[in-house]
Amino acid sequence: MPTHFSYRINAALERYLPERRLFLKSDTETRFIRLRPATQAIAMGVGIVVFSWTVLATAILLLDAISAGTSRDQTMRQQALFEERLTELSADRDLRVEEAARAQERFNLALEQVSTMQAALLASEDRRRELETGIDVIHSTLSRTINERDAARAALAGYDTAATGGSGASDAGRARDAVATVALLTDALDDIALERDRMAKDVLAARSDAEKIETALKVSELRNDAIFAKLEEAVTVSMEPLDKMFRAAGLSPDRLLDDVRSGYSGQGGPLTAISISTAGGMLTPEEIRANAILDGLDKMSLYTLAAVKTPFATPITASYRLTSAFGMRSDPKGAGNRMHEGADMAGSYGTPIYATGDGEVLEAGWDSGYGWTVLIRHDFGITTRYAHMSQVRVEKGQRVSRGDQIGDMGNSGRSTGTHLHYEVRVGGKTINPMTFIKAGKDVF
Fold first, then answer.
1. d(CA 384, CA 249)
2. Who is most buried in 46, 261, 344, 353, counting CB within 10 A?
3. Contact 257, 309 (CB under 8 A)
4. DSSP states of 46-75 as a string?
5. What pLDDT is stored for residue 391 in this prediction?
6. What is the DSSP code (8-state) at residue 410?
7. In whole angstroms, what is the distance from residue 419 CA to residue 388 CA?
8. Dihedral pair phi/psi, residue 269, rounded to 5°
9. Beta-carbon neighbour count of residue 356 at 10 Å?
10. pLDDT tens column, 195-245
């Protein structure tokens, strides 16, 4: 029966796949292999299946490669945009600082000019007062002299009508002396009046110059106020994302800044006050604002240092899938419910793994259930662990920076598949790593 069924199949396929013979010839004999229609059909079917599987696998691999390349390019573009943004903010900050310094120089020069003009004005006022006092004295003297002149003229008139020869000549001489004295006083009074008018003109000119200087000073104050406002806005805009990032990660910005200050506290030079002042006395409102801007720039520098040393970046830049989050879960090896102290990120075997912040490698090697592991100590009491790797690319005691490759993704240790186990600890206490990654996604 099977032979008959096989015959019927071969007969049905004979029309499309005629029987063929494959001859094998040697030196002594010739043999052949009969390829029946059913055998040819089976071979063609197997070939089609193998070809289809090859095409499908190639397509899947190409899609994965394209997806990984797109995600990597997007991450690189985001990083380039962030670096460009930081460069622009830094250049703008330097420009604002330079403008503030130039504005402060102009302000100091204006203060010196105002001080000079005020001194000249005060001197002019003192001289004017002296002249007014002198004029008053001269007026009183002149009034007295005029009265005496009038009395002398009256007496002279009486002498002219009733005097004799000798005594009349003597009185006439005294009258001439009085007239000469009055003329001399009149000339002196005219000179004093001219000097008074000249001093009055000088006082008016000094007041006009003072008003011009006051107007220029107000314009300079308005310009300085605009410059200070731009600088304050630039400092605020630069620090706000960093401040939000630290707070979103549950870290105290003030404590981090204190730690950075204590770690970067090298100083030297003569002992002088760290402030902007032109006279060494009470600070002006402009000097107070300038000092506040300098404090803000110093704080922004500390923020930048703290951000670089804190693990806010993601350890994998290629495409991955979060297969197990932080918290209680069912053990994948069937050991019941247990605390999962990190985040599992599954990806392709050999995917590069990068340090998420500057630090020192504490461990680099095999660690029991973690497999091939790297442990990095960062500043501020923070450590990060990268486990189940296929290869470790750093050594114990080595200093690494954010973005340095420290290993490759693998399946070593107590693991059910290729993935990265990523942990973050603050002060020895485990923290959800995704908190740090989400907090830094808008910055890094």
1. 14
2. 353
3. no
4. HHHHHHHHHHHHHHHHHHHHHHHHHHHHHH
5. 95
6. B
7. 7
8. 90, 180
9. 29
10. 777 777 777 777 777 777 778 777 777 777 777 677 666 666 666 777 777
CB 344 within 8 A of CB 440: no
Q: How confident is the model at residue 271 (pLDDT cuts 50, 70, 90)?
A: very low
- Count how many residues are written for the chain: 444
The secondary element (H helix, E strand) that includes residue 221 is: helix 165-248
For the stretch 39-78, pLDDT in tens is 878 888 888 999 999 999 888 888 877 776 676 777 777 7
- Helix (H/G/I), strand (E/B), else coil: 404: coil
Stretch (H or E) spanning 13: helix 2-13
CB of 387 within 8 A of CB of 420?
Answer: yes
Which residue matches tokens 């005060």? 122
User: What DSSP character marks residue 419?
Assistant: B
Cα angle at 320 between 317 and 321, to 5 degrees?
A: 145
Q: What are residue 330's DSSP bridge partners?
A: 337
In the numeric block, which tokens belong to residue 111?
A: 């203060």
CB 308 within 8 A of CB 402: yes
Other CB atoms within 10 A of residue 407 CB: 25
Distance of alpha carbon 69 from alpha carbon 63, whole angstroms: 10
Q: Within 10 Å of residue 104's Cβ, how many Cβ atoms?
A: 17
The gap between the terminal CA atoms of the chain, to the nearest Å, is: 75
Average pLDDT of the residues in 299-308: 75
Name the phi and psi angles at 418, rounded to 5.
-65, 120
Non-local CB neighbours of 286 within 8 Å, separated by 6+ positions: 104, 107, 221, 224, 228
Cβ-in-10-Å burial (0-12, 13-18, 19+) of 116 comes to: exposed
Task: Provide the β-strand partners of residue 327.
Answer: 340
Amino acid at 187: D
d(CA 332, CA 421): 13
Name the E strands within 282-381: 321-324, 327-330, 337-340, 343-346, 352-354, 359-366, 372-377
CA atoms within a 13 Å half-sphere pointing along the CA-CB vector of 318: 20
Angle between the N-to-C axes of helices 285-309 and 165-248, in degrees from 0 to 180, rounded to the nearest 10: 20
With tokens 């994998």, the residue in question is 316
Q: How far is CA 13 from the centre of its chain?
A: 79
What tokens does 383 get? Answer: 């450590």
Determine the angle formed by the axes of helices 165-248 and 253-263, rounding to 10 degrees. Answer: 100
Residue with the bigger pLDDT between 263 and 76: it is: 76
Which amino acid belongs to residue 216?
A: A
